[in-house]
Amino acid sequence: MDGDTLYSIGELARRTGLTIKTIRFYSDRGIVTPTDRSPAGYRLYNIGAVARLDLVRTLRTLGLDLPTIRKVVDRELSLPEVAAAHAEALAVQMRILRLRHAVLTMVAERGLTHEETDLMHQLAQLSEDERRDLIGDFLGAVFDGLGADPAFAGVMRSMTPELPDDPEAEQARAWVEWAELALDPDFRAGVRRMAEGLAAERAQGDTTGPRPDFAAAVRDLVAPALAAGIDPASHQADPIVAALAADYAHLCGRPDDAELRRRLLLRLESVNDPRRDRHLQLLAVINSWPAPESLAPILDWSVKALRVRTQR
């Protein structure tokens, strides 16, 4: 019967598809042991060695190391437990590979220097605690000292990236770019100015009711003019500018005068930073949010319209 048949290493190699050298190596390591010896002293194996070697080959293909494999085939370790632990380790490796891929892609596309590449690599390798510290440091630089207005809680949530444990390639790449942006002192200062503008508006205006988003209010007023092709310097733009100023005056709780329009222009210029749009896009990718609408064309039009009129 087949169960009583003994096989030489050569016959075992033909049945398993492994090389003689590999089987001898496994045999020397005690992973598959001979059942007997031939009169000439050659190793002989029973049918159980075939099944054992098939399992070893499968586990090696999956990346398990030999000491672990020996414990599995000797039933010292449960295969499901080993598989679960190995799957978890592979998930970590895949995450690291995605982040490395993100860095290499950015280096290739942006022509980064050695120093910039090193920074990108460091940002990609941050632990979860280190990522949390970086996010907290950025939000602190933007919002610390601006009071306990509940409006800021929602704004901070909307500016918090939450990288999944197993990010997609695009999320990994977006995280590295977001981290680079968050470390940029000039960008931090610009976002801080926007937060201070919001705080000033809420401190001076009516805070008893719901407050409209500043950029959204500008969009609603300017989008029709932009779609109609109205020149921001033309007289046709006068009613839109007047509406912008009136809305901002109501928002701030002060009269529409030259000083208010100067402040409105400064506010629009602070919001009209291309990095703001990019920041929002990166957050959307990282957090799997819908892609945000770019307000750059609307803000460009508004800044030009206010600048012309404040210089007259």
Widest sheet, order of strands: 1-3-2
> pLDDT average, as an integer?
85
Helix-and-strand structural type: mainly alpha
The tally of structural domains comes to 2
Radius of gyration from the CA trace? 33 Å
Largest sheet: 3 strands, antiparallel
Shape: rod-shaped
**% residues in beta strands:** under 5%
Helix content: 55-70%
Order of helices and strands: EHHEEHHHHHHHHHHHHH
Quick structural summary:
The chain is an all-alpha fold and about 300 residues long. The protein has 15 helices and 3 strands.
Structural account:
- With 312 residues, this protein is mostly helical.
- The chain has 2 domains: 72 residues, Multidrug-efflux Transporter Regulator, Chain: A, Domain 2, CATH 1.10.1660; 185 residues, no CATH class.
- Helix content is 69%, strand content 2%.
- It is built from 15 helices and 3 strands.
- A 3-stranded antiparallel beta sheet has the order 1-3-2.
- A hairpin with a 5-residue loop joins strand 2 and strand 3.
- Helix 5 packs across helix 9 and helix 6 packs across helix 9.
- The radius of gyration is 33 Å and the shape is rod-shaped.
- The N and C termini lie far apart (105 Å).
- About 2% of the residues have low confidence.
